[in-house]
Amino acid sequence: MVPSRFPKVALLSLLLTYFSSYAYTAPDSLQQKDYKYLFTRIRATKANPVLQDLYLKAFLKNAKDSGDWEMIMHGYKNYADFSEEMRAVMYSDSMVYAARQLGDGKLIGAAYLSKGIVYYDFKRHEMALENYLLARPYIEKEGDDYLTYKLKYNIAHVKYYLGKNSEAILLFNACLDYFKENNTRAYLNTLHSLGLCYNRAGNYGKSEQLVDLGLAEASRLGDHSMDCYFLHLDGQNDYFLKNYSLSIEKLQEAIPGVAENDDYANIAVANFYIGKSYWAIKRFREGLPYLHLVADAFDQKEYIRPDLRENFELLINYYKDKGDSKKVLYYVDRLLSADSLLTQRHDRLYDTIHKNYDTRELFQEKKDIELQFKREQSYGKIWQTGSVVLSIIVVVLVVAHIVDRKRRDQVFRELMENKKPKQKAVKAIPKELPIPQETVTKVLARLEKWEQAMRYLDVNITRASMAVYLDTNVHYVSDIILHYRGKSFTEYINDLKVDYIIEQLKTDRHKRMFTHDALAEEAGFSTTQRFVQAFKSRTTLSPTFFSAKIRKEMAEG
Questions:
Q1: Which 8-state DSSP code applies to residue 432?
Q2: pLDDT tens digit string along 424-456?
Q3: Which CATH code of 3.40.30.10, 2.60.40.10, 3.30.70.270, 1.10.10.60 fits the domain covering 437-554?
Q4: What phi and psi, each to the nearest 5 degrees, are found at residue 437?
Q5: CA pair distance 477, 457, nearest whole angstrom
């Protein structure tokens, strides 16, 4: 289901950008230019931000002057494509708002899809997926082939990020023939993406075949924009095939082309596999600067993915061998931060990571290093006391985390076995009701029908509306529900909604990809916050944990 409410932040960002653009007066020469000319100049002046900004402003200003909402939408998309993260998100909000003013399903779907791509480009994968799912019903309804395959392609990338390689391969293959005939760059991107999936799945031979095909097709089509990425992937394949010198050579050659696209993520990946290749041939001193660059990418951009986690383990072991306790402690802290970030982004993904350091051993090692470092440096009593307190806090937190994890796993298992959550104690329930039995019987019969019809999914349920449906008064409604259901009115409604969502997540794989916003609307909660609070109150689990856990269970099953 697609929320009908438009985020307030989008309206605010639209107003800010809208009025700021009116403060700008385009040169007469640009006011007379058509949109095609301005769009071409925007693309051509990427290397000159000051000049590019003139064309961006002229495009948007001309669109607003003519009152053309479709071109206003494209004007904001231009800005989103060439802005840093915060502004890009604001402009994409305004882009969606402009599309909704037109009421055109195709443009609304395209706007949500473009907004998702903005989030994906900045590695905010969950927000990207949320917008892809918002785009899907519009795109499916309109039946536009290009948007349909573009959506499949981008959802495939999310599946690749989650490690669902077989599902991603199916989606990429579904896009391949269409893009081959209709969009050269998208076709080359898809070949490269398939190569990435096969690399991740361990089929390096197939990945190499796709690299060769991609480069051959790039030459045939006269489009070499993806050559550096095919070379980048080829270097990764060589690493896994133990061709370490070739891996170093190809990845070093690929980096300048990747850097031209400001692609810090793939630069970090290249540096990681160059560093690992040097490590594999025992040339540690040459590999060390590359591992430091990967760590810098995490510090500066918070970029991390499961395979890059090993970067910190290599640095920890290197400095441990050198006896540099200070740097060992530093990279242990960075590793813990990386683990925390991976956990926040995706529980299922985090659980599948093969770690040489599990959390308890890592904290214990940190404690030992701190004690050793304290002795070596002969710090004062303040540092010693602080270190002991810190160690105690760490131990308590780790134990608490382990206990809570076991509790959540037990609750999850009971829910999957259709055991209802334990009911909370409520205020004393009267043994007898001061209501005629005939009335009670009538109300309970109507209540059963109301539950069977799932009218609890209505977003506007009140005691008054229930009283009208049950043909009684509001006081009887509350008293009968408390007596026969053992819950207050609000808890009774919320629990029915949450139980419905739990069942949907267990039986409908598509809904497991829903965001909190979409699930809240599906169940009829007035706000996402109320949904999350009700879910936790009913199950003691967060919706995020339950969804991630069930996805993992289904994937492993």
A1: S
A2: 555 555 567 788 888 888 888 988 888 888 888
A3: 1.10.10.60
A4: -60, -35
A5: 18
